[in-house]
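Regression test case RT-17, inverse folding.

Input:
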């Protein structure tokens, strides 16, 4: 593990490793090799260029390409993954016979290279196992998400104050993004899936809210350019227009997401009634979301 971590994070990482190791043993795997940012952050507490080698029994090993200078009892600097087997042997460890890799996240060429690193082992998918383990948050993770939510909630009441008559949806979104960044949000919006991308959030005004997007979001919007066809389109905000503001926050590596609906002046009665129906649906879903409920 890397040095300098607070005790609470250190204990939580050990809990995460234990959960993954139990899942590895249940699947008959000897080890898991992690190489992608989200899973590195989960298993190591930070993003770095390199690998986490987590055996089904024992402590994980951290193989770092960049940044230089990371230290810890089980940390080693490497230039390439092909060095990992010799470093494991030097530590007195037996090489795996069955190793799991992040099939969903790695490119095909990356998967082939990492599977060849352990040439005598059978390589199989570890992505599903990691998703299952990550889906049940630890107490520490929940506390971080609550802290993020509190900081996020403190920014939202400021949105209306930075609106000015005559603005476009993009101009207002810039001011709201600025508020979130000034509050300390890191800005990065990580999304699962190679064809998914976004920037901080989406502001949908008027008919642009019904514009279809090629991305797998519940929301759409035409966007500002064909290279990123989602979200605000540059439409001018006018009286009677409904505006949906969906901006994420990321203060500690975990995202919170919150949507608010605004109106520019009074809404048409039909639109106002539809909004009330949406609120009733939301409250009913929230009431049903109790521990043990099935999605």
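Golden output:
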């Amino acid at each position: 593990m890397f040095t300098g971590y607070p005790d609470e994070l250190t204990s939580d990482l050990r809990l995460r490793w234990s959960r993954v190791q139990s899942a590895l043993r249940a699947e008959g795997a000897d080890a898991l090799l992690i190489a992608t940012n989200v899973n590195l952050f989960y298993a190591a507490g930070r993003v770095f260029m390199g690998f986490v080698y987590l055996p089904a029994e024992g402590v994980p090993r951290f193989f770092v390409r960049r940044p230089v200078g990371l230290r810890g009892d089980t940390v080693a600097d490497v230039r390439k993954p092909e060095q990992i087997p010799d470093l494991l042997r030097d530590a007195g460890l037996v090489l795996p016979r069955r190793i799991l890799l992040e099939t969903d996240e790695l490119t095909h060429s990356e998967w082939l290279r990492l599977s060849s690193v352990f040439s005598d082992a059978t390589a199989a998918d570890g992505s599903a196992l990691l998703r299952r383990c990550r889906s049940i948050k630890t107490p520490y993770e929940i506390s971080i998400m609550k802290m993020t939510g509190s900081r996020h909630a403190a920014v939202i009441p400021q949105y209306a104050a930075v609106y000015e008559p005559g603005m476009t949806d993009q101009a207002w979104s810039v001011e709201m993004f600025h508020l979130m960044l000034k509050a300390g949000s890191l800005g990065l919006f990580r999304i699962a899936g190679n064809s998914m991308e976004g920037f901080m959030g989406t502001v949908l005004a008027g008919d642009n809210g019904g514009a279809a997007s090629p991305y797998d979001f519940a929301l759409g919007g035409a966007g500002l350019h064909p290279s990123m066809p989602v979200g605000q389109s540059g439409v001018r905000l006018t009286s009677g227009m409904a505006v949906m503001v969906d901006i994420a926050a990321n203060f500690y590596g975990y995202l919170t997401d919150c949507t608010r609906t605004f109106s520019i002046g009074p809404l048409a009665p039909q639109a106002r009634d539809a909004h009330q129906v949406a609120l009733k649906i939301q409250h009913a879903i929230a009431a049903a979301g109790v521990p043990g409920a099935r999605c």
